[in-house]
Amino acid sequence: MATKNLFLSYTLLLALLHLVVVHEALNSGPYPLVVSTWPFLDAVRAAWRTVDSGFSAVDAVVEGCSACEELQCDGTVGPGGSPNENGETTIDALVMDGVTMEVGAVAAMSYVKDGIRAARLVMQHTKHTLLVGEQASAFALSMGLPGPTNLSSSESLAKWSKWKENRCQPNFRQNVVPINSCGPYHPRDSLDLTKEACSRAKLLETSESRSSLVGLHNHDTIAMAVIDRMGHLAVGTSTNGATYKIPGRVGDGPIAGSSAYADDEIGACGATGDGDIMMRFLPCYQVVESMRLGMEPKLAAKDAISRIAKKFPDFVGAVFAINKNGKHAGACHGWTFQYSVRSQEMDDVEVFTVLP
């Protein structure tokens, strides 16, 4: 009997030691890790609580971006944010699973406030990658998301009214003449211009540069990357897009490889800034591929930004990069960029500042 009890005790001890080793393995190294554009502290905390509780990287990204939508981060994420030329607020969002390389995204979505959850539903319940406009809204509602909801707010409508009073300046039009101060617009070369029309055309030609059209509070994205306890990666984004954008415009927010990208074997990237310019270069795909070739995150991020700046010196934008080992860095152009990080070595979220 004593021998049997000793054997049972020994077996129990081995089992406990195994649990300790497994627990230490799950908590060793850089995992879990949450990285996000800007000092969106509460969004990072929401993602951290999710991933630290053992949920997947995709779950954490969705919870983090959803928190930013609810908080209306910087007035450019979620309902009630940046209006377009018609005064309407819309949402672009994306989620990408770095394990399967699956992507779900929505763009120019009205009447549904849960952009990131709609994007995940696209990934889960369709064989598509991107749904847009009113049909994206209809899909999200059919999948059970709440709505329809008016995404405009008193703040967004007041902002739009003030812009209208300023003759709809600045805007994203070029080489056009407005029949009235706020349109409709026609190609400049297609009209027999009167002196007054020439004056209006000159006004548009001398309107503000891209750097004044794009900034922290008029064109901003939450882009988030998470490494979960198993070392798996996911990324997500959500944004209202450019303030006073031309209706129908879709920026880089819901475009995989531009606003965000993740590959379990390599790492991940998130971006923010002038999406019309940045999406032409797929900077986040470039960052991950550069890391695949052996570049450290800092050099990969700088390289991606410098490629854009070489062609568009006045563009405004930034990226952060993390490799699969949890090493992170950022790079920017045209503004000072900040990104937020939470890891198990930290007591709370820490904000890193990157100079242009």
TrEMBL record:
* Enzyme class of the recorded protein, top EC level: hydrolase
Q: Which InterPro entries does the record associate with it?
A: Peptidase_T2
Name the Pfam families for this protein. Answer: Asparaginase_2 (PF01112)
Record: residues binding substrate: 249-252, 272-275
Query: Which residues belong to the signal peptide in this entry?
Result: 1-22
In the record, the note on similarity to other proteins reads: Belongs to the Ntn-hydrolase family.
Question: Hey, where's the site called Cleavage on this chain?
Answer: 220-221
Q: Which residues form the active site?
A: 221
Q: What is this protein called?
A: beta-aspartyl-peptidase
Note the PANTHER family from the entry: L-ASPARAGINASE (PTHR10188), N(4)-(BETA-N-ACETYLGLUCOSAMINYL)-L-ASPARAGINASE (PTHR10188:SF6)
Swiss-Prot/TrEMBL catalytic activity: Cleavage of a beta-linked Asp residue from the N-terminus of a polypeptide
Record-listed E.C. numbers: 3.4.19.5
One GO biological-process annotation of the entry reads: proteolysis
| Record key words, sorted | Autocatalytic cleavage, Hydrolase, Protease, Signal
According to the UniProt entry, its GO molecular function terms are: beta-aspartyl-peptidase activity; N4-(beta-N-acetylglucosaminyl)-L-asparaginase activity
Listed under GO cellular component are: cytoplasm
